[in-house]
Design brief:
The complex is a heterotrimer of chains A (239), B (369) and C (558). Chain A has 9 helices and 2 strands, in the order E-H-H-H-H-H-H-H-H-E-H. Chain A is mostly helical and 239 residues long. The longest helix of chain B has 26 residues. The chains are: A mainly alpha (239), B alpha/beta (369), C alpha+beta (558). The structure holds protoporphyrin IX containing FE (2 copies), NI-FE oxidized active center, iron/sulfur cluster (SF4) (2 copies), FE3-S4 cluster and magnesium ion.
């Protein structure tokens, strides 16, 4: 029984490059987690045969490395888009350098995480906490690429992975690098669980169409939020 | 590393003695050694020709397995190294002299060959209390610092001297440190392994002598010729790894067929050494070939990367066998529970908002932005 | 007039040993032995996986490499109740046998020989005469005139280079050297041969354990698998190599080591067969099970203790009895939580470093206070000598025929009484005779291994208790081994699948320890008392007796 109506408008937040980045990234992460997990804990699969007839573990590693290259360059591309893309894709969203961003982070914690109050967070793109989390995720992406290519450099004779050869000695040997790389996989898995949940949560609570926004690029945003955003009167523009 | 060491003859001449004095010395020496007069010519020749490279070999906190490995060298064999190639002037395991005569041996080398001698070190140096390792009443640290002052280069034998080895494993009760952490200003060659492969040790010595310079080193000062490949990259069981054929428990069917030891905790994929190529004891075998996973004995800190029979180290502060995956699964479950809890709480606490939520009226206009 | 002499470092041993002696009128009247290096490995073991312990304790010593690892796997198996398959037991025997042979030969030629052999005198030898003597004592093929001429020439060139290397500053020309130049030359030749040969027998370790020093061990069995139809396992080729290595070892021991030993002993028996006896109590844990480690009757080397040199009685040894083995620290740089005046059974043992000696550099240690890193173990309160001599005596006193045979024939050849065994020379001879026995035993174990495989048993591992989930909440274990240098025991307490306490009581700990609460000396110190020293500046006599124990200080302190 809805008592009021609120005027909303469709806003184009996620440009095509961001959306393509997102889904390529998701597919890579899924592939890397599955193959990575198998690399760390290979099942007793074809035992009883001769090495000559098999290469499945080699293939798993191959898929891991192919996905790894894709993942890495996709990430590099997204970094570039942080400078070239629209205001919602900008790098400034992700690093909370402004006070108001921190205020919003606190608000999000109060409203969505602890649910102490029930006012709505008025952001068009990512809210400030989500942005910060994505930023940390980007750092983990980077670390995973560094440790991954660091390990890979010892197995490869091509020049690109060799650029990462310094990482292993710096981090105190292959085993610690591998350990960190393996640990971070769990970071990805946990991020994904929380992330997907929160996407649905926000859709459920705010009804702005976040889920579909990563497919089509459009969100539903309240008129007043858009007006405040366009007026640019507030310390923090609502993006 | 050109050998600028003066021959005995040159040294005598430099000290201002004549060739006559020199010949007289040779004759006296021959008499002392009980040689016929014909032997004098030989002495003259030997003392005039190029001397062998003087080497001082110290033992500090160690187990002497590096010395033991060294005497297993097969090309060249150790007798040839010691008699023909270097002048091993101080080596406690092998030398005849004891006590102050022994100490005199290395002091003489240091005094007579400044800048020319090589210091080889077996063992780590305790720093928690210097008295944890004393020789002749002096501490390892005092002895080493004095000896390296005028040396040409330092060879750190084995994991002890290169990274502290077992005594530096947690909690490192004696504050054991490798050579490169307690001295500075001299090139240190880390010949890794616990112990290093005999023929690798001989190879390093031969390199120094034959090519007259220090071998090319990697970022951790290990000679590239022996430590630039992972055991895994040269392992003959590698085909089984790629085929995903693994030993599942010791002496199972896979073990009897020589499957890969990855799941038994093999550290070959994270260990740089020549075991797969040079192998041990004149090419007979190496740990993996004899059925035991590599424990990573040529890597710094490998003792604390255990348990050995596990693919990745246990996570410190949890029980033994607590792996990254145990913790990951635990955190994953906790997250899922947290998420589910949050969802339930949301439905309870935001009930009002949800039922009162205003109806959205979407404008069909073109968006701004 | 008393003179205090310091010998530090004692070389041609393993590790860091300092000996201070008091000489009165040319005779040693008091002696102190101190271990001067510590690593704290017992402390490092705490909290670790018991299955990993073999690798840590293996690194206690690379000279008796593998012996601590063997002891450790036995200790953990004892705690967890694991019985290893017969083949694993035999392979462990073969590895231990190979160690004995290598270690004893290296000790005799490389570490000990220079106490009896004057290298410089060998330069004066007549190679033809050396060849004649060599051929008269052995059928070893390398004994031609040309061979000895070449060796001598090589040494001459070396000496004449003026760079004497490891032979510099030796005690050459000391009047206690008694061998004729020709025997010295034979010994020098065999020094070089032994050095080259010893690297062969260790290949037994490489085949079964993947490397030497520090071969791999495994709780529950041995890591290598046997599969005679497979290139990747122990197959006929690998076994054939093991067989050949032991055949060659037996030839070297019987044709080189034993003849040289007897030849040298015949020149020194009159005095050194009566010097350096020291303690009168001897301990052996026994070893080389031929039918399961829990069945000591099957041991090739019997277990037991001898008190007061009474060879008519062999006392029973029980390491788990809290009143039998105890370690004291009243003269060692440690603390016990119950004070320094107690002895602790190793299950309750503690290792807290507490250095109270002089700050280095120092001239002398203060012997009225703690003076060593070596703890002081006692058996039922007695100081015990351990090592080859103790084992030979226990074997002899137990009436083992193989022991009786070699001991009696040797005593007869040398024309000396049984009492001559209680001496420096007796210790050195016992080591050689034992090596001879070990060569035979190795071939026996080898044959048994082949027979098992032929009968279809190729198991080398018992996996039943591999997973920690199958272990009890807490457990205690003891492992005993006869290491080349003597009775070796490890003690473990496992709590919560982790090592709660791990203590090692090591052969050289028994022999090199400082004195106990009653002021009683241990073997090194006691054996020096009464030794004549011709020239205190050149204490060759001290080296002879100390070296006769084959000291290992890395072991002793750990
Ligand atoms: C989402 C990102 C990634 C995840 C979740 C992931 C996960 C994993 C895991 C769990 C392992 C097994 C570690 C072990 O236990 O041994 C692994 C191995 C490895 N990963 Fe990744 N990884 C990722 C990205 C990358 C990237 C970007 C590279 C770059 C080349 C890379 C290269 C490697 C390499 C070289 C190995 C070792 C493979 C081997 O030696 O067999 N990974 N990865
Ligand atoms: C492994 C899986 C995933 C990863 C690693 C991941 C990662 C990310 C990242 C890094 C962003 C920020 C995008 C940017 O600004 O460039 C993002 C945003 C987003 N993702 Fe994912 N994602 C995953 C799965 C999913 C799934 C399965 C969905 C949909 C059901 C989804 C929906 C969204 C949405 C709607 C946004 C925008 C959120 C907002 O506006 O706050 N993601 N995701
Ligand atoms: N003492 C001693 Fe060892 C021996 N044998 C071991 O237990 O030498 Ni390194
Ligand atoms: S590196 Fe290993 S083998 Fe060498 S001395 Fe140290 S513990 Fe012994
Ligand atoms: S046995 Fe070890 S080193 Fe060899 S292929 Fe397998 S994992 Fe690599
Ligand atoms: S344990 Fe060491 S010996 Fe080689 S195979 Fe591994 S590096
Ligand atoms: Mg102890």
């Amino acid at each position: 029984m809805r008592s009021r109506t609120i005027p909303m408008r469709e806003v184009y937040v996620w440009e095509l490059p961001v959306r393509v980045y997102h889904w390529v990234n998701m597919l890579c992460v899924i592939a890397l987690c599955i193959t990575g997990f198998v690399i760390g804990n290979p099942p007793a699969f074809m035992n009883g045969t001769e090495a000559y007839f098999n290469y499945w573990f080699g293939t798993v590693r191959f898929v891991h490395f192919v996905a790894a290259f894709l993942f890495f360059f996709n990430f590099i591309f997204r970094t570039y888009w942080g400078f070239a893309g629209n205001e919602f894709a900008r790098w400034t969203n992700f690093i909370p350098l402004k006070r108001c961003q921190w205020k919003e982070i606190l608000d999000v914690i109060k409203v969505d995480i602890l649910q102490l109050t029930h006012k709505k967070i008025d952001s068009i793109g990512h809210n400030a906490l989500a942005s910060l989390i994505y930023f940390l995720t980007f750092l983990i992406f980077l670390l995973q690429c560094l440790t991954g290519f660091g390990m890979y450099s010892a197995m490869s004779h091509s020049s690109f992975p060799k650029l990462f050869a310094w990482i292993v000695p710096m981090m105190g040997g292959d085993i610690s690098v591998r350990f960190l790389h393996h640990m971070l996989m769990w970071g990805f898995i946990i991020f994904a669980i929380v992330h997907v949940y929160l996407v649905f949560y926000h859709d459920y609570i705010e009804r702005r169409g976040v889920t579909s926004s990563m497919i089509g690029g459009w969100k539903f945003i309240e008129e007043d939020v858009i007006e405040r955003h366009d007026a640019k009167t507030e310390e923090c523009p609502k993006n | 590393m050109e050998n600028k060491h003066l021959s005995f003859y040159e040294e005598v001449r430099r000290d201002g003695s004549s060739r006559r004095d020199f010949l007289k010395f040779c004759t006296t020496m021959a008499a002392f050694l009980g040689l016929e007069s014909s032997g004098v010519g030989q002495i003259v020749k030997a003392l005039e020709t190029k001397p062998r490279l003087p080497v001082i070999w110290f033992h500090f906190q160690e187990c002497t397995c590096c010395s033991e490995s060294f005497i297993r060298a097969s090309h060249p064999i150790v007798a040839n190294i010691v008699l023909d190639k270097i002048s091993l002037d101080y080596q406690e395991t092998l030398m005849a002299a004891s006590g102050f005569q022994a100490e005199e041996a290395y002091k003489t080398v240091m005094a007579k060959n400044p800048g020319e001698y090589i210091v080889m070190v077996e063992g780590s140096i305790p720093t928690e209390n210097e008295a944890y390792c004393c020789i002749g009443g002096r501490s390892a640290l005092q002895i080493l610092e004095e000896a390296v002052k005028n040396c040409k280069a330092v060879v750190a034998w084995g994991n002890c001297a290169s990274s502290g080895c077992v005594q530096a494993a947690s909690p490192n009760p004696t504050g054991a440190k490798p050579v490169h952490k307690v001295i500075s200003g001299k090139p240190v060659i880390n010949v890794q392994g616990c112990p290093p492969i005999a023929d690798v040790m001989a190879g390093v010595v031969v390199h120094l002598l034959t090519f007259g310079r220090i071998p090319q080193l990697d970022e951790l000062n290990r000679p590239k010729a022996f430590y630039s490949r992972r055991v895994h990259d040269t392992c003959y069981r590698r085909a089984n790894f790629d085929a995903g054929l693994f030993v599942e428990s010791f002496d199972d069917e896979g073990a009897k067929k020589g499957y890969c030891l990855y799941k038994m905790g093999c550290k070959g994929p994270v260990t740089y050494n020549s075991c797969g190529i040079i192998k041990w004891n004149d090419g007979i075998s190496y740990p993996i070939q004899s059925g035991h996973p590599c424990i990573g004995c040529s890597e710094a800190g490998f003792w604390d990367n255990g348990p050995f029979y596990q693919h990745l180290p246990s996570v410190k502060g949890f029980g033994i066998e607590t792996t990254a995956d145990n913790i990951g699964v635990g955190l994953g479950i906790a997250t899922a529970v947290g998420v589910a809890g949050h969802a339930i709480v949301t439905n309870v606490r935001k009930k009002k908002e949800l039922s009162n939520a205003p109806e959205a009226v979407s404008a069909v206009e073109k968006p701004k932005v | 007039m008393a003179e205090r002499i310091v010998i530090d470092p004692i070389t041609r041993i393993e590790g860091h040993l300092r000996v201070e002696i008091e000489v009165n009128n040319g005779v040693i009247t008091d002696a102190f032995s101190a271990g001067t290096m510590v690593r704290g490995i017992e402390t490092i073991l705490k909290g670790r996986d018991p299955r990993d312990a073999w690798a840590f304790v293996g690194r206690v010593c690379g000279v008796c490499t593998s012996t601590h690892s063997l002891t450790s796997v036995r200790t953990v198996e004892n705690a967890l109740g694991i019985a290893v398959p017969p083949n694993a037991e035999l392979i462990r025997n073969l590895m231990a046998n190979a160690l004995y042979i290598q270690d004893h030969v290296v000790h005799f030629y490389v570490l000990h020989a220079l106490d009896w052999v004057d290298v410089v005198s060998a330069l004066k030898a007549n190679p033809a005469e050396a060849s004649r003597i060599a051929q008269s004592i052995s059928s070893w093929p390398k004994s031609s005139v040309g061979y000895f001429t070449d060796v001598q020439k090589r040494f001459k060139n070396f000496v004449e280079s003026g760079q004497l290397g490891i032979f510099a500053n030796g005690y050459w020309g000391h009047k206690a050297y008694k061998l004729p130049p020709e025997v010295n030359l034979i010994a020098v030749a065999h020094y070089l041969e032994a050095l080259e040969w010893q690297k062969e027998i260790v290949k037994v370790h490489t085949i079964f354990g993947g490397k030497n020093p520090h071969p791999n061990y495994l709780v529950g069995g041995v890591p290598c698998s046997i599969n005679i139809e497979e290139a990747n396992a122990v197959n006929a080729e690998r076994l054939a190599m093991v067989g050949k290595l032991f055949e060659d070892a037996k030839a070297f021991v019987n044709q080189v080591y034993i003849p040289d030993l007897l030849a040298i002993a015949s020149f020194y028996k009159s005095d050194w067969g009566a010097i350096g006896g020291g303690l009168t109590n001897y301990l052996s844990f026994g070893d080389f099970p031929m039918n399961g480690y829990n069945n000591p009757e099957s041991f090739k080397m019997p277990r037991g203790a001898i008190l007061n040199r009474d060879l008519s009685k062999v006392h029973e040894v029980k390491a788990e009895d809290p009143n039998q083995i105890q370690e004291y620290i009243n003269n060692s740089w440690y603390n016990y939580s119950k004070g320094d005046k107690v002895g602790l059974h190793p299950w309750e043992g503690e290792t807290h470093l507490n250095y109270t000696g002089p700050k280095p550099p120092y001239e002398h240690l203060d012997f009225s206070q703690k003076y060593s890193w070596v703890k002081t173990p006692r058996w039922k309160g007695y100081p015990m000598e351990v090592g080859p001599l103790s084992r030979m005596l226990v074997g002899y006193a137990s009436g083992r025929p193989d022991y009786k045979e070699v001991i009696e024939s040797t005593l007869k050849t040398l024309g000396v009484p049984v009492a001559a065994l209680f001496s420096t020379l007796g210790r050195t001879a016992a080591r050689g005779l034992e090596t001879k026995l070990v060569c035979d035993w190795a071939l026996e174990s080898f044959d048994q291994l082949l027979a098992n495989i032929k009968n279809g048993d190729s198991r080398t591992m018992n996996n039943a208790k591999w997973e920690p989930a199958s272990w009890p909440q807490s457990a205690k274990g003891i492992g005993m081994v006869e290491a080349p240098r003597g009775a070796l025991s490890h003690f473990i307490v496992i709590e919560d699948k982790k090592i709660a306490n791990y203590q090692l009581v090591v052969p050289t700990t028994w022999n090199a320890s400082p004195r106990d609460l009653n002021g009683k000396r241990s073997a090194f110190e006691e054996s020096l008392i009464g030794t004549p020293v011709a020239d205190p500046k050149v204490p060759l006599e001290v080296l002879r007796t100390i070296h006769s124990f084959d000291p290992c200080l890395a072991c002793a302190v750990h």
